Amino acid sequence: MVLHAQPEDQPADAMPEDTYTAASASMSSSIDLRTPGPLAPSAALRNPFPPIADYAFLSDWETTCLISPAGSVEWLCVPRPDSPSVFGAILDRSAGHFRLGPYGVSVPSARRYLPGSLIMETTWQTHTGWLIVRDALVMGPWHDLERRSRTHRRTPMDWDAEHILLRTVRCVSGTVELMMSCEPAFDYHRVGAAWEYSANAYGEAVARATREPDAHPTLRLTSNLRIGLEGREARARTRMKEGDDVFVALSWTKHPAPQTYQEAADKMWQTTECWRQWINIGNFPDHPWRAYLQRSALTLKGLTYSPTGALLAASTTSLPETPQGERNWDYRYAWVRDSTFALWGLYTLGLDREADDFFAFIADVSGANHNERHPLQVMYGVGGERSLVEEELHHLSGYDHARPVRIGNGAYDQIQHDIWGSILDSFYLHAKSREQVPETLWPVLKKQVEEAIKHWREPDRGIWEVRGEPQHFTSSKVMCWVALDRGAKLAERQGEKSYAQQWHAIADEIKEDILTHGVDSRGVFTQRYGSDALDASLLLVVLTRFLPPDDPRVRNTVLAIADELTQEGLVLRYRVEETDDGLSGEEGTFTICSFWLVSALVEIGEVRRAKRLCERLLSYASPLHLYAEEIEPRTGRQLGNFPQAFTHLALINAVVHVIRAEEEADGSGMFQPANAPM
């Protein structure tokens, strides 16, 4: 790798002699520093797709976007996060982008979130000056004051999305050439865009789809730059000097965009206030890992869809689990399992409003709000849609040429028995802070227990949604036990003593079956009945209190997973050669599983080992403290959809486990999570 190259007018021989002396002291004498080989073109050295971990994530609780280090919006779907993309360069370099930054410079000097927010700040240095760019999806005070919202079903909040992607620029030193390029591509790059001016001068333009424009969003670009229109692209270029300010606002509804830089700055400030007021509700420990907890909480909040209370599994589709492989899925939907697990994480930090909204969403999709009873399915669209038909987009190259690109998710109608236990466990946690179970939800919860009773003896696709044949997965049976156990406890709270007694008895029956068929001769829980294969989901045995931490089978299982189901110390979901998941190729280590292992190690008393693993996992965080689904153990590269709710919720649980164990050990006992062991 070439670290430094000399300017063409300064040959290597012209370098000071002491430079060579210092360099050669740390390098092999066989390397001739005075005769460098020819340099490959820079384009050949640089992958056009940025690393997944280098993207910044923005949200306004109604949609999300990803911004590359070069200052380009490369993923934005409007008006909803599961709508077709209008900028999709993350999946194909020609599928739409929106760049704002210095001309001719693509690597920033620094990037950060403003503390306590999802506002991105990028600092740029050029040969002639410095720029600071801030990006946000704008939040403002609740604006539906004279008429009710047509999209919001949940209780109105203090803050609401304004449906504006706002970008501000300030030149803080010298002079800098600023360029803006906005080139949308509607419907996943299947429909082109046509721009036209919508004002008398050059400060505003509108982009519409070239085909069936009424079926696609209209994008409005407003700026104090002079916008030029060149085919599919709106562009601008200007020389900024110290003290100059620029704003660019992209909007897609009738909410008014800022017309001046001061109005833009005011909107940026109110967005900051929104995020900081929300994060201030939480209970965060005074600990060096506090920043990771706050960033994970902000990310989970950013993955919520406030109009319905749904919670996305991730912001993206088809970012590969295997480099250039086929394990590419659409995660822009609300998985019941992922959402309920995410509530664990938010509850741990004292953030519970999201749980109220999510259970209202469950009441919607189950029919409880209309005196109906529908069985829960694995996942839903963020508006409660039940059909999520999977489709492959063959015209897109895929991220770093990983194909196919998929939209929709064929797992929506799978049979997965763990969802009943997931939702009942989460609601039990929710109910512990309340006097009673809401009347509208009790029939829904009772229905989940009945489904678990009806189906727990049958095979399913499991927590990992395998596309091979259904199996008797042990973790699915454990979660059926959770459904009966938590259902019985909720029945007691509800005053339904007969149900409580009956469900406790069935829970005992399920437990006996698992201990008979799901444990091998070593006393280790196995992936499925009749197999010796390991599975990381069996860490839930201790995390759900199926067995106490001091049970030998718990300890044996946790240590077996730590020692035998890892690569470079990071946890796999399962060995692909031992599991019929219906797919080819390898996959990376699942980061949620590694964080689960941290929590499980703490539970069995292996606190030092847990802390070492937790420190290592935190070191794999992106520069902005974000995580995708997987980590490639050999390189530390993040893989899969981004950012991933599953990973961030497990981080919260793991970090709090370690902090709590340390405080218990030193006797301070100051910080306790909301979901401390029952």
UniProtKB/TrEMBL annotation:
InterPro entries (UniProt xref): 6-hairpin_glycosidase_sf, 6hp_glycosidase-like_sf, GH15-like, Trehalase-like_N
Sequence ranges assigned to domain Trehalase-like N-terminal in this UniProt record: 50-126
Swiss-Prot/TrEMBL catalytic activity: alpha,alpha-trehalose + H2O = alpha-D-glucose + beta-D-glucose
Gene Ontology process terms (BP): trehalose catabolic process
Name of the protein: Trehalase
Cofactor(s) annotated in UniProt: phosphate
Keywords, alphabetical: Carbohydrate metabolism, Glycosidase, Hydrolase
Enzyme class at the top of the EC tree: hydrolase
Homology family: Belongs to the glycosyl hydrolase 15 family.
Residue ranges of domain GH15-like in the record: 290-655
Region annotation Disordered: where it falls in the sequence: 1-21
Pathway: Glycan degradation; trehalose degradation; D-glucose from alpha,alpha-trehalose: step 1/1
Enzyme Commission identifier(s): 3.2.1.28
GO terms for MF: alpha,alpha-trehalase activity
